[in-house]
Each structure stands twice: as C-alpha cells, then as structure tokens.
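Q: Got one fold?
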Amino acid sequence: MSEAGQRIAYAKGMLQGRQVEDQERLQAVLTSVLEALEALHTEVDGVRRELEELSGYLQAVDDDLFEVEADLYGYDEAEMAELECPHCQTPLVVEAEFLDDDAAEVTCPECGYVLHRGPAYGEPVTLSTGGENGQPS
C-alpha cells in the first residue's frame, strides 16, 4: 500500500474507531486527511514526471519508426504532409496522397480533434497544408 493509502486508511480508522467528540480529535482527523492529500500530490507529481519522460522516449521511437518505414517503403518527404493539430498543437505526418481520398479522415491521436475529413463523410473538413513539402502555412 502506498503512503497515501496508508494515511487514508489511518484517517478512516480514526473516524470509524472513535467518536469524534471534541475539537482536538477532529483536528487530528483533518490533519491526517491533509497529510494523505499531500502524499497523493507527491505521488501524482512523480507519475507526471515519469509520463513526460516516457512521452519523450515514445516520440523518439516514433521518429525512428518513421525513418525505418521511409527506408522500407520508399517514402519521400515530398510525398508526406506534415500537419499540426490546431487544438493541441500535436504534429502529425500522413501521406499526402491519403488526404485526396474521399473517405479519408485524419484525427489527432492526442485530443481526438478531426483535422481532415473527405467528402464521403457528407460535410468535409479540409485542412490547408499550404507550404513546401506539406508544411502547414
């Protein structure tokens, strides 16, 4: 059990095992709850730091995989469109040819925002890729 879990169990036991009759006991329970919240905050911060580190590793692996796919399948950077989600600024790379498909839909993997939707969906959503080599303008 984590430190936060132990502190929560302690506060719960204080409430269940004793009658909180006076101000001093109530203060002890509240102090215990605040300590548990502080421990939870510390644990969440640690998880957040680990997630940021893993996200960096994942991005590096994704970049490496793109290079392997480009070598294996013969992608040329000119054949790729680099997009950026206007909602969360996540960069995306898709085959430029894919965007011409009537049934194509490009959804941001981070936030779910639809960046591009072909005419087969009824009301198309188009994203200008603008600049050179598919760079957003």
Summary: The radius of gyration is 26 Å.
